[in-house]
From TrEMBL:
Protein name: SHOCT domain-containing protein
Domain of life: Bacteria
Signal sequence extent: 1-22
Keywords, in A-Z order: Signal
Amino acid sequence: MNIKRVMIVGTMVVIMSFGSTALSGSITSASPATKFSSTGIADKDKDDLLEALNQSSDEELYESLYEGKSLNDIASEQGGNIASVIQIQMAQLTQQLDERLRSGNITAEQYAAHKEELREIVEQSVFTSFG
């Protein structure tokens, strides 16, 4: 798998994990980066992710990611559980794939191919720093 694809897909995995509106901030914002929005995921999933990373808030998680830390770095530093993070992301992305298949946006063959490489992509994503 080439590194450019890993980086692109890894970034997509992180963004999808925090909601589909993660990049919807205003271009005129004075902030150097758009904060992640968690409106695309259920509160329980958001709480589970924060708990697995041992983070107290979305803002704390955002700041750690903004500093260039990987999800694994954050979990390791805070005594979190990276296996739970992987399970949460796998469940969320599997649900999204299921919805895409049901709605006809992807074929059964595409679904199977995406599902087959999902764990590898999620694992690469959580261990990759973007700093």
